[in-house]
Amino acid sequence: MKILLLLNEDYQAASGIAQYNRNVADALRGIGADMRIVCRGQVGVAAIDKAAFGTKALFHCLVWRPDLIFVGHINLVPLVIGVAQRLSIPVVLPAHGIEVWDKPGLSRFRATEQVTEIWPVSRTTQERMRSWLPDVPMHIIHNCVELADFTPGPKPDYLVERYGLAGKRVVMTLARLPGWDRHKGVDEMIQAMADLRESQPDLRYLVAGEGPDKPRLIDLAEQLGVADTVIFAGFIDRAEKLDHYRLADAFAMPSRGEGFGIVFLESLACGVPVMGSTLDGGRDALLDGKLGLLVDPGDRAAVAAGVEATLTAKAPPRASLDIYEYGFFAKEIERAMRAVIAGAGLGRR
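Above: the chain's sequence. Below: its structure in token form.
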């Protein structure tokens, strides 16, 4: 089985999409697939332009002749769909979140209409795509988490000291803070901290993540009078990720644009109860509220009450996360790819 992976970002990056791509690549290595990867960008290296990327992708299509092309982002589909169709090579597109929730421009729309199958990571993403792309076969393949990498443990003393959290309870959000995407629920959580200031004086909100939107969020905390209770931790190195989850008493991300929410599963695996949103893919990750509390991020009072409830809740039994284990994901990826190559396509059943 020869698989060509075309990725918009290096799969060693810190994003959820990069994690998904790593899981896919690992799954293919695990079954001994012949795999080639073309990335637009690598960690610490400037991204190659679309023309150069397209040339490399077309070279692999024409010379190597893969059995299947896995296009990691909708923006890359127009670069290869034409030659793939001429060579009768099936194309699959994973669909994560807001990049596919609304109808794209004409060229991407027409190209996406021609892909063989789409793999949404959640019902939310599938439903949003179906509104503008009703006829392409779709098959949901949820994200996964390496449960062995995330386990319960005591609060790390070095982080308690670093952030001045001795004797404090901590609610945390882990998310990137890009200026163009303000859907992670950090605004709503800062507002909740203002609402809870008197009733929860020992509560601190830890925002773990970096991005251009951070200065605006710092200003918001100052405007609402909670600058002393909201802590901006900045970028969290992968080596400290587990310890930051263990630092938290609750994890909250009342978002509006999350495609799935791997961070919910990682937090739960660490024994930390979570609060998500009723409006996006977090409801899939949390099994419609069975694994964590869901609130409407547009209801300010509900968000504050949800934080209080989550602080007193317990994470569900670890065994309830088994359906999101990497091994299950790897088998599903293999099964889906073999079905597409065979012409059956799981989404067509």
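Residues 51 and 255 are 35 Å apart (CA to CA).
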